[in-house]
Amino acid sequence: MPNLSGMHLVAAFIALLLIGLLLVPVAQVMIVAFQNPATGAATLNNFVDFFRSALFRESFWNSFYVSVVSVVVATAIALPLAYITTRFHFAGSALIQSLGFIPLIMPPFVGAVAMQLIFGRNGTVNLLLREHLGFDLPFMEGLNGVILVQSIHYFPFILINLSASLRNIDRSMEEAAQNLGSHGMRLFRRIVFPLAMPGYIAGAALVFIKVFDDLGTPLLLDVNNMLAPQAYLRISSIGISDPMGYVISVILVVFSVLSLWISFLFMRGRDYATVQKGGGGMARRELGPAEKVLAYAVVIFILLLVLTPHVGLMLLSFGTIWSFAPLPDGYTLQNYVAMWEGSRIFIMNTLLYAGIAATADVIPGVAIAYIVLRTRIFGRHGLDYLATAALAVPGVVLGIGYLRTFHSLDVPFVGKPLASWWVVIVLALTIRRLPYALRACMAALQQVSLALEEAAESLGATRRRTIHKIVVPLMKGGLLAGFITSFATAAVELSATIMLVGSSRDAPLSYGIYLFMQTPSGRGAGAALGMVAVVLVAIGTVITQFVIERDKKTRASGDQR
Amino acid sequence: MAQTGITIEDLHLSFGDTDVLRGVDLDIRPGEFFAFLGPSGSGKSTLLRAIAGFGPRPRGRILIGGREVLDLAPWARNVGMVFQSYALWPHMSVRDNVAFGLRERRVPARQIRDRVDAALDLVGLGHLDERMPNQLSGGQQQRIALARTIVVEPEVLLLDEPLSNLDASLRVQMRRELLGLQRKLGLTTIFVTHDQEEANTTSDRMAVLDGGVIQQIGTPQELYDQPANLFVAGFLGTANIFEGRIETDGDGVRFHTRTGEVLTLPEAGGEGANLVLRPQNISMTLAPREGGLRGEVLHREFLGSQIRYLVRAAGTEIVVDQSHSAGRDWFETGAQVHLVVNTASAVVL
């Protein structure tokens, strides 16, 4: 085949990039964790030191505790929603299912401060409780705050996965059990829940990892005795030679991989999607009058809870002074003016960084998808695994790895090391978002029938021209979706960028929000900047949905343009 | 085992505005193997599911063993149903699947083991009890689904297109096994199918459904030989329908075709003006015959034991089957032929 060697070159180039930008930095972190900082000899002393320190033991326990309890709270939110929307005829089902976009359009740290103003000790809810009922509840005290913010933001991961599993249970599975004498809670416990379990585990594992790795939320809530904030504080205050940041990184990676592995083990051999010919999803019941009231009460309560960060952020961004009061004292646009004056550079940086990163994700994304699905190049699945492995690498770890690996790598003509040049942020974003873009590209390519390519080749087009004229145009919708998802999530990424921001002139919007939120006087402007982020990402999400829907319709009409 | 009959009276059922069952009356005798036969959308599966208690609540009456069941939940009816998709639970082993109904009935563990063993032996799969359902072939899954249902000793057995997911050769074998099992257990059984061969070969009696209404009930042979209407005639096997009119006078009954030819019928049967004839009850010659219909061969198919001709005659197209034996001549396409009708087997509808 004439162009195979070209494909080999592309594969080798991507492999090199992935090794240099992902494997080496992460390996570097792992190695340093096991090295004596003075002599460089292999040792376990760093880990011994880590567990000897009361603060680190506490941080480790806190991170674990917060993650587990967040999963529990997120489950408590997601389970009723999933159950009600899949099992009953319920008017608000579509609305509830679209809640799935919340963690995408607003990362938890953006709403964290607003949550404090609503649920904190002197926040709206507690002020009202104290005034009318004479007591208050410690929603936001210490770890509680992190748990509340995280579970409100990440419960959709469980909702989406669990709902999908529930919908995929064939009606006859349930009917067969009823036919054999089972009903009610026993039927749910013995048939429905076990069948939905794989979806639940997948969602719960995601929530666990996200919470365990998250840096922005605890930082903004000023909870420092957790693993990710400790890693950040050690590196940013003591420097990149301090081994504790690396030890924490190893722990973060181990837990990420472990929970992914557990969820994989659980899913293996359990493809319970049982919807079959002559079947249909689970039987939906009509709600009785009392059930209806209960269902609406539960759903409305959860929706209110889930929307508080958004409402709070909006109030904060339009409010004048908001302190010791249920609502802001007055409303103004001043925060937006201040934000625009102070942080235009952040917005510009974000558009630049996320734009480059998303572009840089889609190109190797297409290449890897093509290599994996359409060629037999040796090691092609390795490329896929390597690119996807970025999912298991927490942002903090990648940030530390880049600092360590690239601090001695001077960039020609710029006159500073790569680690403190803005491009390093873009590289980190690119690697972090590559798995998302890659999945989108894979999905897009899988929908392009091989016969369409073969038709072009049989008419005399070379492999390269076929890719250029047939494959890429057919993948366009999927590529755009991948681009926008990468862009939108890169635009609000904080954990890796916060480690890599050299000077605030190079900082993106998420870092800007973090800076503003540090001082009470900056909160208004910070919230305004948060609103910009939310709007930016929301627009991206809407466009993605539109593109995907339009693409589906084009295909459905048989017009495979 | 006490045998149970099923009585259905004036059953109506609708999905929203769509009427799916429109006044079904049915009496299924104890121990009978009964088939519901009909095209898709005829309501046959809906009727079966209504007996099991699934789907919208119908109006009318369903009695199982004389007991009114419409107000009973599916789990309180003690009818066993085998689903088209088998519905084996993928998270349970074969043994757990089969034991499920017994555990729900709080049967002692020891008894459960013995009864599950017996049920698995009955379907010949005692050695597969530790397998998971996804490790079984389609035929094995079918047998396990059957074992899971009969182990709880239901009063009646409902089979919803049980063979439709099997390949053709397995289907013939399974339907024999099903029938053998039913005879052994003496269990009143209803079998839903759209395949007339399945219904003909297994059932004692069957009901043909169309448009939510039972068109006719009887043994397979009765329905084939004496269809009650044109739908049943056309749905069971191939039927030639001659349109025309019937005249009765002193010396007999005569059928006038649209092209003016006259056939003498042995007796007046039925009200209609259509004469229904099976393809094998018409013979064909080249030489003119008295009382024959003139026709022209349009098309010819060699089917092995038979040759099937499409003949234009009496203003319509007639299918004629001639049995084939080696060396026998064919009628060529375009040949002018004469059709001799066995009027004794004709049905007037």
Plain-language structure description:
The complex is a heterodimer of chains A (561) and B (349). Helices cover 73% and strands 0% of the residues of chain A. Chain A folds into two domains: 1-32 and 333-561, Orthogonal Bundle (MetI-like fold), CATH 1.10.3720; 46-331, MetI-like fold, CATH 1.10.3720.10. Chain A has 23 helices and no strands. Chain A has helices spanning 4-33, 45-52, 54-87, 93-97, 102-105, 108-119, 124-133, 143-167, 171-179, 184-213, 216-220, 227-238, 244-267, 289-318, 334-374, 380-389, 395-406, 423-446, 450-458, 463-491, 495-500, 509-517, 523-556. Chain A is mainly α and 561 residues long. In chain A, helix 18 (423-446) crosses helix 20 and helix 20 (463-491) runs antiparallel to helix 23 (523-556). The model of chain A has no long low-confidence stretch (mean pLDDT 82). Chain A is globular and about 75 Å long. By secondary structure, chain B is of the alpha+beta class. Chain B folds into two domains: 6-235, P-loop containing nucleotide triphosphate hydrolases (Rossmann fold), CATH 3.40.50; 240-348, Beta Barrel (OB fold (Dihydrolipoamide Acetyltransferase, E2P)), CATH 2.40.50. In chain B, 24% of the residues lie in helices and 35% in strands. Chain B is built from eight helices and 20 strands. Chain B has helices spanning 44-52, 94-104, 109-122, 138-150, 168-185, 196-202, 220-225, 230-235; strands at residues 6-15, 18-28, 33-37, 59-64, 67-68, 79-82, 156-160, 188-193, 205-210, 213-218, 240-249, 252-257, 262-265, 274-277, 282-285, 293-302, 306-313, 316-323, 336-341, 347-348. In chain B, the strands form four sheets. Chain B has a six-stranded mixed sheet, with helices on both faces. In chain B, strands 13-12-11-14-20 form a five-stranded antiparallel sheet. In chain B, strand 12 and strand 13 form a beta hairpin. Chain B is elongated, with a radius of gyration of 25 Å. The mean pLDDT of chain B is 89. Chains A and B meet through helix 9 and helix 10 of A and strand 6 and helix 2 of B.
